[in-house]
Amino acid sequence: MLNAFNFVFINVDTMLAYKEELFASESKLLGLNAKTSGRAHSQASLDVLWASLTFNSRMVLHKLAKLYYARKQAIEFFDLYRQSRYVVHSVVIIVIF
C-alpha cells in the first residue's frame, strides 16, 4: 500500500540537541563538566546558540546587546520591537535590491 505513494525525505532539524546542550548541567556533547570548567562550558554553550540562530535573530540579539550597554539598564519590549523591526526591514530591502 505504501508503494502507491511517492514519499520525499526532508530532514527537518528540531534543534533538540542544542536545547539539551544549553540547559544541561553537564555538557556531554562538548565533553565539558559544568562544575570544573564553568567558563568554558558557558562559552561553548553560547557558541552553539550563536551558530543555531538565523541571520535576523543574530541581528536582533546584537541590537539588544548594543541597546543594553548603551543605556546600562533594561530595555523595554516595545523599544526592542521597534529597533528589531527596522533591522529586519532593512535586511529585507537589501536582499530585494
Please explain how this structure is put together.
This is Origin recognition complex subunit 2 (inferred by orthology to a C. elegans protein). One of its GO terms (molecular function) is DNA replication origin binding. By secondary structure, the chain is mostly helical. It folds into two domains: 15-52; 54-97, no CATH class. The chain contains four helices and two strands. It has a two-stranded antiparallel ribbon with strand order 1-2. β1 (26-27) and β2 form a beta hairpin. The longest helix is centred in the C-terminal third of the chain and has 20 residues, at 77-96. The protein is flat, with a radius of gyration of 19 Å. The N and C termini lie far apart (49 Å).
Overview features:
97 residues; mainly alpha; 4 helices; 4% strand
Q: Which bin fits the share of residues in helices? A: 55-70%
Report the structural category: mainly alpha
Task: Give the strand tally.
Answer: 2
Order of strands side by side in the largest beta sheet? 1-2
Kindly provide the radius of gyration, computed on alpha-carbon positions and rounded to a whole number of angstroms.
19 Å
Unreliable runs: none
Strand content: under 5%
> What overall geometry do the principal axes of the alpha carbons give?
flat
Mean pLDDT comes to 70
Largest sheet: 2 strands, antiparallel
How many separate structural domains?
A: 2
Along the chain, the helix and strand elements come as HEEHHH
The number of helical runs is 4
Multimeric organization = single chain
- How far the N terminus sits from the C terminus, by CA atoms, comes to 49 Å
GO molecular function, one term: DNA replication origin binding
Protein name: Origin recognition complex subunit 2 (inferred by orthology to a C. elegans protein)
GO biological process, one term: DNA replication
InterPro entries: ORC2 (IPR007220)
